[in-house]
Amino acid sequence: MPSISAAASAPGVPAPRAAALPWYVPAVLVAATCAVVGVIWDISWHRTIGRDTFWTPAHLAIYASGIIAGLSCGWLVLKTTFAGSDAERAAGVRFWGFRGPLGAWLCIWGAMAMIVSAPFDNWWHNAYGLDVKVLSLPHLILALGFTGIQLGAVLMVAALQNRAGGEARYGRLLAYGIGILVLNVAILGFEQIGFSQNAHNALYYLVCAAIFPILLVAGARASSLRWPATTAAVVYVGVTLIMVWVLPLFPATPKLAPVYRPLTHMVPPPFPLLLIVPAVAVDLVMRRFGTGRDWRLSALVGVSFLAVLLVTQWFATIYLISPASESFLFGAQRWNYNSLPGDFEHQFWDIRSDPVTPLKLGFAALLAMTSSRVGLWLGNGLARVQR
Description:
- There is one protein chain.
- The protein is an all-alpha fold and 387 residues long.
- The protein folds into two domains: 21-163; 194-226 and 247-387, no CATH class.
- It is built from 13 helices and two strands.
- The protein has a two-stranded antiparallel sheet.
- A hairpin with a 2-residue loop joins strand 1 (93-95) and strand 2 (98-100).
- It is globular.
- The protein starts with a helix and ends with a helix.
């Protein structure tokens, strides 16, 4: 008697259709995207206009993330608890008598943190004025909130992928979620790695080695795609480039003194790191050595990531800080309204006080290896998530 799989693959017999994508999956991924888009927009707003009302479009985009994630996941938990099937309830995590996917709980907690941060941030600005740091205390609470939503989205997709036997669509969505997390940590590291002028000092590579391999490697280990780390890097670069090209289309003028640059349009974010190149190296190394012997693999991945990133960014940023790069493609109007024009715009920063030396590169390599090892551990956990 022919097997089911053989019968399904026989001529004239349609293959079984995959189950429909649950609606809450795109909802939480949209919420995760709204957060990073809103934060990039908000940073541009501060750099172009200064402190404005609480109800700016950028703020609304950020808090739309919490609303979408909170409502969709809240509904999912209620439905699973009171009207879910036995399979849905078994695939949920119990908390305070309610049941729902672990990712949904993270999204709900993240949304609650964002709600708490909103009035706190407004009070902070009224009390202390325009903040000069990306990570003020209310911004840190906000960042923890939308990071929770992004992690929740990744966990929900990973659980669905694992229960579905590694369907490619879930692998793509998982890589997309990892890419949003990569963009998130790049935003949080804005002051150290945001500008190309930092790419010839040691701190730049120390920060990159610490924060990027953990996510790229975790995604590469957990996703069912063939090029998961590369796909995540494409998401990071793609979303950033969209913001680089779209924001300057909107007219805007500074509203706070002192104004040293008569801006007429929104300031774009800095050009993204070319993470696609080292991400390809991550995928190639992990594909070559496969699973097992993760300590050795983490050393090879970490060193490969740092070496390729160093070469790529070192030479690419020579052009990116030059006057030739001041075009729409790379972000022409790139400086704050309250920054005095000067030679610093076309120079590498801190190359004397923080030079790239063999010793510091060795420490960066150690950080990259450690980050890769943690990424493998997290990726192994993501690959086992069922709830």
